[in-house]
Write a structure and sequence with these properties.
The complex is a heterotrimer.
Chain A lengths: L4 H21 L3 H26 L3 H31 L13
Chain B lengths: L3 H24 L6 H4 L18 H16 L3 H12 L4 H23 L6
Chain C lengths: L15 H24 L8 H20 L6 E3 L4 E3 L1 H27 L5 H19 L3 H19 L6 H32 L4 H10 L6 H17 L8 H8 L2 H26 L7 H26 L5 H22 L8 H24 L15 H4 L1 H15 L5 H15 L3 H27 L14 H19 L2 H12 L2
Antiparallel strand pairs in C: 1-2
Helix pairs in contact in C: 1-2, 1-4, 2-3, 2-4, 3-4, 3-10, 3-13, 3-18, 3-19, 4-5, 4-10, 5-6, 5-10, 6-8, 6-9, 9-10, 9-12, 10-12, 10-13, 11-12, 11-17, 12-13, 12-16, 12-17, 13-15, 13-16, 13-18, 13-19, 15-17, 15-18, 16-17, 16-18
The chains are: A mainly alpha, B mainly alpha, C mainly alpha.
């Protein structure tokens, strides 16, 4: 069975927007971080799909770099979560309220 | 048919692993005590509430592992193609040397910062 | 899929021109690595060596870039990067802003008990990311450079680890920044699907070849990339993060963000903008489409930025909204670029002028900030002229410059920017910009009134001594502000040359 590229691309966009919705809606910072990773992985999948569809290796090469950057990003993000937890004793974004209008 | 070597490898791996397990069970001396009989999991009590807190050091090691592990992804495309490029000049090897050098500086930094010391 | 196995021998060498063009990047990277090793060398306890090595790295890198400014364009790494006057011009701006940030920070970090070597390393890494960003021609390289810059700055924003405001600012910035990067990247992926390339030159060639309009996938991808950049430059409606981050970040880092980060995001945006949406030879439909989007963003950014700044009492927050307003003016210049005789040179000049006056203003704030960045409210500035006459004078110069009053850099830059918009027949936009500019005078002058016409507050905390480094930064920025304001021709010529090389 051959899976048409548009099916995969639609699937990717759905994952991407699930991730985006997660960033905007969820209140737990760890879940927000996971949602960001979801967005990046949806992009990876998009790149690979296009690479396969176009017969062009550039997309797969891009994925290598995105994976690495995503790892660095999650390391920094989790570090910030720990720093915040130490002062705030919470990972709930509703508690972030010192800086406001 | 081209996957036959993989199949052979799988069979050998299972046979070797199984043989070592069985042989050490049959031949090895046994001095059981309660501590040794308890399941082992990285020095933590393996039973109990899964949501209890554990040391932040685990996390630090995991993050460092993640970072250095992901860098290895760049070695694979290099390893596949560098032979073809060696005929022209050593530029690609030089590039990889720079890449490894950067990783080593990072490792040196982590080491001297004391991030890998447990105490 | 047939993987192409042809070996590109031309990629396996580095010509002497290419090596020359790469030298600022290699120098800054080498210096950063050296500082990194120094920072963990146990024999050296005081952090002074790391500080000195870092500052020297940035300054020498700046001189090298300056030397390469007049060199011809060199393509690097299979057209993924380019070394041209534009890139070198901005390299000078980024490295200068990094060096000045570090100089202004030394005393501040001592006071806050945050004197860690990592601070300087992260500033240098962020500067390196900016340099790569402004010279990248490939969207993936831009993404990696952007992340190198952003990840360093996320940590710098949260550098006051024990302070809740700093943590919250870093967390907010990280979440929104990471989401924006992901959106930018998704746009890149869609552009790749539509055009078979992530290189902006190839994308430009693709757009030029499409006489009958482009596919929906291309449009969607371009939109997402633009949204990513609008977020990074903090244009309305993607500006919400900026005031909070500016307020929570350590004061010198806020200065670094207004100068380096903003210039980097704009430098890259202009490069992409000219080649894929607004340059010569592109279909008129795409150009007018882009024109309308940017006009709406520019107007909203100017109006909202200035209007909200009116009510702010914290100076850092006020400067954050003023920064949003200035983003709006620069967007006006980007719209006008194609239709005026100066082209995009006023945009570049404005970025430099804005960087100079903001670097100075935040250096003053870093000196005045009481422990834990408190005491930057308007009433803390009451009677500053009698307590610290020179600092009050310097701050006045910077604020007048931001308001656009002659003979300062802000006036010259604003004049040229609006003049080019008039030439491009954007009269409506110019009227709105000038009105907004007039409104902004109110909140800038309010600070001056507090400094010169109010008595000092009862029981105000004594000011910390002014360090030599910070004083040097402030003094040089005052000189530069007045110099660009009175004699803008030299800087404008340099900006023109940079833009011509695009």
């Amino acid at each position: 069975m051959r899976i048409e590229p548009w099916v995969v691309l639609t699937f990717c966009s759905i994952i991407f927007f699930i991730g985006l919705a997660g960033v905007l809606i969820r209140r737990n910072i760890l879940i927000i971080l996971m949602s960001v990773e979801l967005m990046l992985n949806a992009v990876n999948l998009t790149f690979v799909t296009f690479s396969r569809q176009l017969g062009h290796l550039g997309g797969q090469m891009s994925v290598f770099f995105i994976i690495t950057v995503a790892a660095a990003e999650s390391a920094v993000g989790l570090g910030l979560v720990i720093a915040m937890f130490r002062t705030l004793r919470s990972v709930d974004t509703d508690q972030i309220q010192l800086l406001r209008e | 048919m081209s996957y036959l070597p993989v199949l052979i490898l799988v069979v050998i791996a299972i046979a070797l692993g199984g043989a070592i397990q069985i042989l050490s069970h049959v031949l090895g001396p046994k001095f059981p005590n309660p501590m040794k009989n308890s399941p082992f999991e990285c020095g933590m009590p393996p039973l109990g509430d899964a949501r209890h807190r554990f040391s932040v050091r685990f996390y630090l090691v995991a993050i460092l592992f993640l970072l250095f592990d992901v860098e290895a992804v760049f070695f694979f495309p290099f390893a596949v193609t560098f032979r073809e490029y060696l005929g022209i000049n050593m530029f690609m090897v030089l590039e990889m040397a720079v890449f490894v050098g950067i990783l080593l500086v990072g490792y040196f930094y982590v080491l001297r910062k004391g991030a890998l010391e447990w105490d | 899929m047939d993987a192409s196995t042809t070996i590109r021998a031309d990629l396996l060498t580095l010509t002497s021109e290419q090596a020359m063009m790469l030298s600022p990047y290699l120098w800054v990277f080498g210096g950063t690595v050296l500082a990194m090793i120094l920072s963990v060398t146990r024999a050296i306890q005081p952090r002074l060596p790391v500080f000195i090595v870092s500052v020297l790295t940035a300054l020498v890198g700046m001189v090298v870039s300056l030397g390469l400014f007049a060199a011809d364009r060199v393509m690097l790494f299979n057209n993924m990067m380019v070394g041209d006057s534009y890139a070198n011009f901005f390299n000078v701006v980024f490295l200068a802003s990094a060096a000045l940030t570090m100089l202004a920070s030394f005393e501040y970090l001592d006071q806050e008990r945050l004197q860690y070597g990592e601070y300087y390393l992260l500033v240098l890494f962020a500067a390196l990311g900016m340099m790569l960003m402004a010279s990248a021609l490939d969207l993936i390289v831009i993404f990696i450079a952007l992340e190198l810059m952003s990840l360093s700055v996320y940590v710098l924003v949260g550098f006051r680890r024990a302070d809740r405001r700093s943590n919250e600012a870093a967390m907010k910035y990280f979440i929104l920044g990471a989401a924006a990067s992901a959106i930018l990247l998704y746009g890149t992926a869609l552009l790749y699907g539509a055009t078979q390339s992530t290189n902006i030159r190839d994308i430009q060639a693709f757009v030029q070849s499409q006489s009958g309009g482009v596919s929906i996938m291309f449009t969607l991808g371009a939109w997402l990339v633009i949204v990513g950049f609008l977020f990074k430059i903090a244009s309305v409606p993607f500006h919400m993060w900026m005031p909070d981050v500016y307020e929570g970040a350590p004061t010198p880092i806020t200065g670094f963000m207004t100068t380096g980060l903003k210039a980097a995001a704009f430098a890259t945006f202009v490069r992409i903008f000219i080649s894929t949406g607004y340059g010569d030879g592109l279909p008129a439909a795409i150009q007018s489409h882009m024109h309308d989007i940017i006009v709406v963003c520019a107007v909203l950014t100017m109006v909202i930025g200035n209007a909200v700044a009116l009510t702010q009492t914290n100076l850092k927050r006020m400067l954050a909204y003023s920064s949003i307003a200035h983003t709006g003016y620069i967007l006006v210049g980007m719209i006008a670029g194609q239709g005026s005789e100066q082209g995009y040179a006023p945009v570049v000049l404005y970025l430099v002028a804005y960087a100079v006056m903001n670097m100075g203003a935040f250096a003053v704030l870093a000196i005045l900030a009481a422990r834990a960045d408190q005491g930057l409210n308007l009433r803390d500035f009451s009677g500053l002229s009698s307590r610290q006459p020179w600092l009050a004078f310097a701050m006045s110069v910077f604020l007048l410059s931001m308001a656009g009053i002659p003979p300062t850099a802000g006036f010259a830059a604003k004049y040229l920017l609006f003049y080019s918009a008039v030439q491009a027949h954007e009269i409506g936009l110019v009227v709105i910009s000038v009105l907004c500019s007039a409104i902004s005078v109110y909140y800038y002058l309010r600070v001056l009134v507090h400094m010169y016409m109010h008595e000092p507050e009862e029981g105000a905390a004594p000011l910390r001594p002014v360090s030599v480094w910070a004083a040097a930064v402030v003094a040089s920025m005052v000189v530069l502000t007045v110099q660009i304001g009175t004699l803008p021709a030299g800087m404008l010529a340099a900006a023109k040359r940079a833009v011509m090389s695009l």
